[in-house]
Fold this sequence. Notes:
The protein is mostly beta strands and 1382 residues long. The chain is 7% helix and 39% strand. It folds into eight domains: 49-417, CATH 3.40.50.200; 423-498, Carboxypeptidase-like, regulatory domain (Immunoglobulin-like, Sandwich), CATH 2.60.40.1120; 503-584, Immunoglobulin-like, CATH 2.60.40.10; 601-763, Jelly Rolls; 773-851, no CATH class; 859-899 and 1233-1294, Sandwich (Immunoglobulin-like), CATH 2.60.40.10; 913-1226, Kelch-type beta propeller (Neuraminidase), CATH 2.120.10; 1300-1381, Immunoglobulins (Immunoglobulin-like), CATH 2.60.40.10. It is built from ten helices and 103 strands. The longest helix has 17 residues, at 10-26. The chain is globular, with a radius of gyration of 36 Å. It starts with 9 loop residues before the first helix and ends with a strand. Residues 785-810 are annotated as: Disordered. Keywords: Hydrolase, Protease, Serine protease, Signal.
Amino acid sequence: MRIPVPRRSRRTAGVVASLASAALAVVGLQLPTAAPASAAPSSRPDVVRQCADAKPGEFSCFALRRTDVPARAGVQPLATTPDGFGATDLQSAYALPPDGGAGQTVAIVDAYDDPTAEADLAVYRQQYGLPECTTANGCFSKVSQRGGSDLPDPDPDWAGEISLDLDMVSAAAPKAHILLVEADSAYFDDLGAAVDQAVVLGAKYVSNSYGTGYDSTPGSGEDPSEATSMDPYYNHPGVAVVASSGDDGYGVSYPAVSPYVTAVGGTALTRDTGSSRGWSESVWNNAYGGPGSGCSLYEPKPAFQTDTACGKRAEADVAAVADPVTGVAVYQTYGNDGWAVYGGTSASSPLIAGVYAAAGPPGAGTYPNAYPYAKPGALNDVTEGDNGSCDPDALCTAGPGWDGPTGLGTPNGLTAFTSGPHGVFTGTVTDHATGAPIAGATVKAGDHSATTGADGTYTLDVPPGSYDLTAAAYGYATGSATAVDLADGATVTESFALDAVPTRTVSGRVNDGSGHGWPLYATITADGVPGGPVFTDPVTGAYTLTLPQNADYTLHVTANYPGYQAVSKTVQVAAADQTLNVVVPVDSSSTEAPGYAVNLAGATEPFTSTTDPPTGWSVVNADGTSGGWAFDDPGSRGNRTGGSGGFAIIDSDDIGQSLHQDTSLLSPSYDLTGQSAPILGFDTDYKEFSNSTATVDVSADGGTTWSNVWKKTTTSVSGPAHVEIPLTDYAGKSDVRLRFHYTGTWAYWWQLDNVFVGKRTYDPVPGGLVVGTVTDANTKAGVNGATVTSTDRPADHTTTTATPDDPNEPDGFYWTFSHLTGKHPVSAAASHYTAASATADIPPDGTVRRDLSLKAGRLKVTPAAIDKTVAWGKSTTQNVTVKNTGTAPATLTLGETPGGVVVAKAGAPLNLVKGDYSPLSLAAHGTKAGATSRAAAAAEPAAGDAWQPVPDLPVSTGDNAVASYQGTVYSAFGYTGLADTSDLYAYSADSGAWKKLASAADTREAPAHGIINGKFYASGGWGANGNPDAKLEIYDIATNTWSTGASTPKPYAGAGTAVLNGKLYSVGGCTADACGTTDVTAYDPATNAWSTAASYPEDVAWESCGAISGKLYCAGGTIDAGTLTHGYVYDPAADSWSPIADQPTDAWGAAYTSANGLLLVKGGAINGGAALTNQTWAYQPDDNTWTALPNATASLYRGGGATGFYAVGGLAGQTPAKTAEVLPGYDQVDTADVSWLTESTDTVTLAPGASATVTVTLDASAPDISQPGTYTAALGLGSDTPYPLPPVSVSLTVKPPATWGKITGTVSAGGAPLSGATVQINTWATHYTLKTAKDGTYALWLDVRNNPLQLIIAKDGFQPTTTTIRIVKAATTTADFTLLKD
């Protein structure tokens, strides 16, 4: 839910938003919140995105809402007509009839519920004199994605989208019926199911004002599987399925790019009294966005598209108004106070759906997105504007005819949207020799084309006429059929049997082309050639391709070394084999090409002054500007650009509320005479806001005219970032000036440093390449993660990697640039292997291969299990044999783990709670104006009996620090939904209740924490000022007091944390604004000092960590760039991390602990942070595997875990929870001794081929064996080898003495087992006191000479009962009891 607030500081806004959310939660309501109304519209529009950015697997709506327009409630008098274009305006602009749509049903598909949709629609229609459309008169209906009344949860953000859609359909087709289908969520499958449901319910027009997130990168908004996994939802012949193209400018979004959908772009619509139409349009493109457009990477080109700009599906098809500055009037009260002005292509899609409805029913079996292509002259051709830069220009720049941003144009009446005469070609394309279907063949009829499916079939819907048909497929000769007549309404079958053509070999070498000339390891693909790529030989650069003859192919060569350009070559394959050598140059803008050094010649401005612009530089502010470019860091941001020292900044956020900036930083003149390829480079940090723009402009005429070379609006460039821009157009100019221009109104900031103008060269340095493979001497498999180093120049080193795509190169591959040539040793090292070395004869400007093999010990332990039975008080032994089958010495370490077997009960069903889940501080990053977030409501708890409930926390808390000590669970700190807390609570199973203890001095969210020797340590975590708190606070459990220790040098929040070898570890974590670091620190209470440990192998935060057998295991996590599945183990003896098996999911923010020799992970956010889970996993270090444990009851994240396995607190979306539960049986801490189990030695060191025997003694006379029965444990096997060893399970069955018998039974009350009841057994000699288990049972063996036994059964709140029992030798006597309530 968006909760706008008056903008003070952003931290204040977040706290107010959190307070508001919490207040609503307390009273059990979810209420929409009104945007603040201004006294009058501001001079500049202020626009917010209505929906949050799309997460992986989700769509987002493409609605934009003006916040500078005051909201007014109810039908307005004519004197105060709502702002924005109304229904009559839109009908005028697009020549639409005022009574269109009669007899038709238009479906609107959106996510979540708008509870006031029908009431709001009534106000809109009354305002513009449209006929009523209500449930009562049968015009309006609202259903769930299942077609029923089980509507999803309401959401005020998507409610705005729904109101926009309903109003636009009403404007375009006033007499159409409207069907609103509300999906459960914004997930692909939910919205797709809603589309299918709309069609099932009879809609012939379906509007979809949503899509995937995207940018200008090809394929960024698509997925390779979309054609099979998603297109079926939108493939409905005879139905006009319409979708918005997006709001982020040039780039492709799904589902608009589906070939079955009418993709709708966006325009800026203005009145134009000087034109006959009375209106004019251009491509929408301003600070608030622009329509999506472009070329699909995956979808085939539909038959009706004949443009040459794109070989596959191109978008858009048509367009309508979308610019929020020239936006449309919408009435919305759930999430707003009434009338608002909206834009975005979310306005365009329902308008076009309504136009289709006004035009009449689609032809049966036809695809209505083809209709405008048959009558392009019947549209308003938009010829001005662009939505970005691209190649070819038609994909992003308007012009006559089809273009990407607006397609064929905007509606000019209904003609272009009616079904004209048409017929269908259909058939099958097969292999002539075998008859097998050919998938992916292209069938053309004139300018129309279609692609065959997996079964070889195709369908072409085209206008009537006589056609020459062709069928072409890779590896086959083209088939044809001439002068095939097609009548209106006819279906003609034309099949093709194609002949395979001979193949020829294209081979050659790929070499460096910028000075070294060495062979390159490269990937080669060919356009139109199916299958995987071809790889060159890393040593020779040689490659071979087999291609069908008599065709031209474009080869794309990409070096597998960084810093090289991609090269494309066209080859004509005739009747003979041929050779094609390729030279690949380095990318002059890169700094990563091996063997090359960057040299700069020109001026650099480091902005060292903190008071004034540098000499020759100036700041120019437009009228009405408050503040401007500064050099003294007025907001104390620090240099975020990647530079150091002083910098230039325009800090709109610091300047303050409602204040506007239009400020330029102007450079001195640069003389580029004699330079052929000058560049501009600068370090930067740009934090976007909805109304901010940062541009770099260049002038060659003294500042009279300026040309833009770099522009950012709503896409941040997070520092440290370096930007380089070619100034080729200004080469040879003598007076070149730069302008760094920023506009914004209480937005964020833009920082600049180290502005360079001049020449950049990439020059070779002496040396050669060394490549090879590092393998395991025992298994012969590649060793990934090994370090290969030049012995004579250790700075030349690299790490081996996997090569999953290259069948000719095994894993363990490495390459490195060597500054040394000639004969020099190289060495390879990896954890638990013996280092290896070999000499490489490195040729200057050449490549040499040097493979290395690493030796390691490898242990085999037998038997795999020990199972012994002994008499009472007796002992037995078992010999365990250890053999080293490896190639190096090996040491085995034995340890003991009690309770080798945990019997699990049934878990709850998998329970995913979809939503948008943030890793940042909730107190400091609550919802704020201009941003969007939506907290998903928690799902109902899932049923299951493995996890047992624990009494709720006294206060709902997330980000709490949880640990256990001597059977007591502690929960400290966290976020309560109202504020951060410093409170501490303790839960004891004996008392069955939580108790409040002394509070700490500081509040914190998500600190590093742990209990060491009876003291609870907490450090880091987000403090009261929003930054991580460096103070270390220490709670003494014995005295119930807090004290402080040494502050951490590197405070973080959301770090992975655990206690290992008496030290508190903090791994990774978050700062105030970002998540992810490799920092690892450890606090030693013995010295009251922090130390730095080896860096984590990758940036991480919110991972799960636990200490097991003297090592630290961590897995999962998240960073700003995405979520993680990787796991690693830290060996403090070697101060190094090594990889372990990946976590089964990308869970982060889970409740975690270590127990029973396992790393335990419960819940957390998964699927890229888009869902909460109740899954529970255990990592077993001994065999490097993950095992599923029973699912928990609650799906939460950012709670705490403790040995037990307790899970306490957490968050459901942004709402803290009180929930606490336990998975019994996981209560064995890392270091434990099994009293009845001993070994003759705890370490064994063996040479290769050697064996040794360890004697294991199982002693039933140990004090812990007080009852007959079966006792289990495990021998943990650790080693200094790279191969995990499974534990040896140990089972000891102790038989009772001959004179003993067993008394057992169940205590119940009200027909249910009664846990925790006291069973006192009195004998003539002594007495025993038992407690019933969770299932109400009790049991005891004892000598029959204790007979008779008096049993007293009691529990508070129940009437006690008593009886006398006699037990029998070697037999079980059962006595059940039922207690009555007092």
